[in-house]
Structures are given as structure tokens and as C-alpha cells.
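Researcher: Re-running this chain for the archive, since the previous output was lost when a drive failed. Same request as before.
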Amino acid sequence: YNIAIMYDEMEEHDSALTYYERFLKTAPPEVDVDSGPANRSELEQMTTTQIYYIAAAQRVRELKKSMFLKNGAESR
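Model: Regenerated C-alpha cells:
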């Protein structure tokens, strides 16, 4: 996760995406990474690790979307 964040901050989005996806593969089955935003009471019941998994999944979706839009704009 930390490596993915560093690549993300350096705007190396391909590498960041690779490391986020590797991190998500280690998620335990009981962690619902596609659950979307959580309310305060749900967050209070989650462990820090669970929050990292959810944040990574959200960032993967954002990166894929921005990379898709960027590639589409470059092809015009």
C-alpha cells in the first residue's frame, strides 16, 4: 500500500495501479472492498487495515477512470 501511495504521489499512475491491485489481492474474504463510502458508525467498527483496503479499491477505480479519460483525449 505504501509503495502504491508513493507512486501515486509521483504521478506514476501505471505503477501505482499495479501496486494497489497487488495490495487488494491480499484482502481477506470478509473485507468488502467494493462497499463504497461508509458512514461514521461503520468506520468506527472497521480496523485500520480494512479502511486501507477500501481506500485502495476506491483509488483503483479513480485511477482507471482518469487513465481511460486521458487515453481517450490523447487519441483525438
